[in-house]
Write a structure and sequence with these properties.
301 residues; Pseudouridine synthase; Archaeosine Trna-guanine Transglycosylase, Chain: A, domain 4; 3 domains; 9-stranded mixed sheet; 6 helices; 17% helix
């Protein structure tokens, strides 16, 4: 007699997992695999990586999901490889070849071309992207052979270092603002060089203050007994490490957790609030008070 499959027992899990995403998995696939490893009832991510891309993906469980959108604004750093002389439909190695051109550039020309992209630049988002047009992702139109006109957007390239120039390949490390498409950057560099280019490798190494060096692979997590995995998670406030911190005493803590603005010395803008444990995110108001924005749920509140 066949036994019924054992249903997964989801648990309340709070924290942030820094995952080293493998290539070939979508960000959502990676999220669901990690979620099952922790049996987490609630999970989300802080911004996607293309399936081809590898590297840092910050995943949120439980209460940490309340603060996941704060990392969307953070700068990101990527290590990328450009293949010169070939353009593709997607701007990366997963697309079909559009054109092949001779490559006659040297290292000096490549360095000069890349230097021209520093600072604020205009980028036209690629058709193979998750941006929406009339409620539908652009890549869905692209797969049907439909081209949608896209407005350019301003993004900022904070730094762009050329680390290797080969006969047909260039390695770069780029730190950029939110909304930057490294695939598009690769294509634009190729056009300046006159030979075209596409992306063959992309690895995210940082998101704001979060670093790939602190990330774990799915295999590393799976190798640890499930009962011992919780310590692998960072506290939800890891997502807000770039913000100043404010400490509350027990009375102001109680008022704050009941949603009331409290008077306390605080810098202007958003702040992390503690009392002494992490309580949530607040905004400084003009009257010298801080007003709760997102709060951690506590049983006694």
């Amino acid at each position: 007699m066949n036994q019924a499959p054992v249903r997964k027992r989801w648990q309340i899990v709070d924290g942030v997992l820094l995952l080293d995403k493998p290539g070939g998995l979508s960000s959502n696939d990676a999220l669901q695999k990690a979620r099952r490893l922790f049996s987490a009832a609630k999970a989300g991510h802080t911004g996607t990586l293309d399936p081809m891309a590898t590297g840092l993906l910050a995943l949120c469980f439980g209460e940490a999901t309340k603060f996941s959108n704060r990392l969307l604004e953070a700068d990101k750093t990527y290590a990328a490889t450009l293949r010169l002389g070939v353009t593709t439909t997607t701007g990366d190695a997963e697309g079909e070849v559009l054109e092949e051109r001779p490559v006659t550039v040297d290292a000096a020309v490549v360095h000069a071309a890349c230097a021209g992209f520093l600072g604020e630049i205009e980028q036209v988002p690629p058709m193979y992207s998750a941006l929406k047009h009339q409620g539908k992702a652009l890549y869905e139109y692209a797969r049907q052979g439909i081209e949608i006109e896209r407005a350019s957007r301003r993004v900022t390239i904070r730094s762009l270092d050329v680390t290797r120039v080969g006969s047909f390949e260039v390695d770069i490390i780029v730190r950029c603002s939110k909304g930057t498409y490294v695939r598009t950057l690769a294509e634009d560099i190729g056009e300046v060089l006159g030979c075209g280019a596409h992306l063959t490798a992309l690895r995210r190494t940082s998101i704001g203050s979060l670093q790939l060096a602190d990330a774990l692979t799915l295999e590393q997590i799976a190798a640890i007994d499930e009962g011992a995995r919780r310590p692998l998670l960072a506290s939800p406030d890891a997502l807000l490490a770039h913000l100043p911190a404010v400490q509350l005493d027990m009375e102001t803590r109680r008022l704050f957790l009941h949603g009331q603005a409290v008077r306390v010395a605080a810098p202007t803008g958003e702040v992390r609030v503690y009392g002494p444990e992490f309580l949530g995110l607040a905004q400084t108001e003009g009257d010298g008070c801080i007003k709760p924005v997102r709060l951690i749920a506590f049983p006694e509140v």
